[in-house]
Amino acid sequence: MSRVTLRVNGTDHELDCDVRTTLLDALREHLDLIGAKKGCDHGQCGACTVLVDGRRINSCLALAIAYQGRDIVTVEGLADGDSLHPVQQAFIDNDAFQCGYCTSGQICSAVAVIEEAKQGWPSAVTEDDHPRLTPDEVRERMSGNLCRCGAYTGIVPAVLEASE
Asked: Are residues 8 and 72 in the same domain?
């Protein structure tokens, strides 16, 4: 067991956990933040996506102890009080979820996708030096997040809407 201090959604949390505890398990089992889901537990589905220092990671592959001192944001930390984050609102407005299991990971990933594009980071389908979010760009950038229900027809427009 080790003492771990995690800064999650703007608040420091001290917890005692095994050094092998994943960030996902620390969030869900120690902090009761259940938005990030354990889908595949192999980093392949994206249901566990959270933001660390503004970048998206698969929290099922990350050891909690390695993220001390980092700014961790979960889907629960995106809203500002009763005001939803623009991506959260766009997912509702565009009916971008069905069962909802992958939605929190999709939303966290979409927040990062929008920021990556704003910062000019290219993707595998970027055609010039100034990436702009098109449906193809969104599909490529969100490809690490799987939806078994097939809500992609709502997810792509939601990301595009939120990026405006």
From this structure: yes
